Amino acid sequence: MLGWSVAGLVLAGIGGAAWLRDRVDSYVDPGHAKVAAAGFVPKMAEVNGVRLSYVEGPDNGPPLVLLHAQLLDWFSYNRVLPALSKRFHVYDIDYPGQGATRVPLGYPMTANRIGADLGDFIARQIGQPVFVSGNSSGGLLATWLAANRPQLVRAALLEDPPLFSSEYPRIKSTIAQRAFRTSYTATKDVPDDFLLYWIEKNARFFRRNVAPGTPFLLTQAVKAWRSGHPHQPVEIGLLKNDTVRMLVRGLDQYDPRFGAAFYDGTWNAGFDHAAALARIECPVLLLQANFRMLPDGTLDGAMDADDAKRAMALLKHGTYRRIDATHVVNLDRPDDFVKIAEGFFLGV
Description:
two-stranded antiparallel ribbon, alpha/beta, eight-stranded mixed β-sheet, globular, 15% strand
């Protein structure tokens, strides 16, 4: 079960729209108050025509740039931001295609363009070399930065990045390709509402992993949230699983062109993972989460064991760590993630 409240499902089905609206409208993720209390401030920066959204913490140490997983946004780090802010000056960024960041018309969703814009943000807004930690696609961008902007990166933590597995055509044998297919079809269908489109296209996933009726009820919950919280990212408290709840929030702001570029292979155009890893001179920690191979040979996870070994063989100053956690480690095991990040960055 992914964590939709079973009681909520039953009551929503019995009590109707009023009950659902009241429950949805009253939810506030406690992470918001904790992040604000830690001193984080939302900001915008203009970089090469991109309006880059980020939150910045207090200056309590060396700068640390966080790059979240694809389909999420900066708030997915909320469980670790207060602790990290005690020893770092944290910049938690919505990179192009995600969150509140906005890009010019025709912006190319490629690692080379996004990485270059992130590098310019670091150079202009931070003005000194940084530690960088990236999860999933954010880990690929952290790899890009360490390889192509070495003067800007002191050390990099790669949190379960899909190294090699997200390159085309290998990506076709991963479970992620199923999600990217929805993004790709959205660029053809051009739906008015990508979140509701995504729920519809993935209805079978919700019925199988949550409960029957979930797609309908989740659609109603999204509409109820929006009626009471216009222009705010969707947050559905009835989704008890942190990662799934953050996923819905992220999908509400997501540019499907980003995922479509993974689906057709254009995101990695000119960005060879092996060549990039071999160029990195700074210390790198490769943090690998759980994965499994499905009976049909599909990779359910970011990397398999061979991918991790290959990456470590290419890195000049690499450290490997395996953790019993789901893909978004910082959400699944926040205390462990903070200890790992602090131990690595403050020890280099």
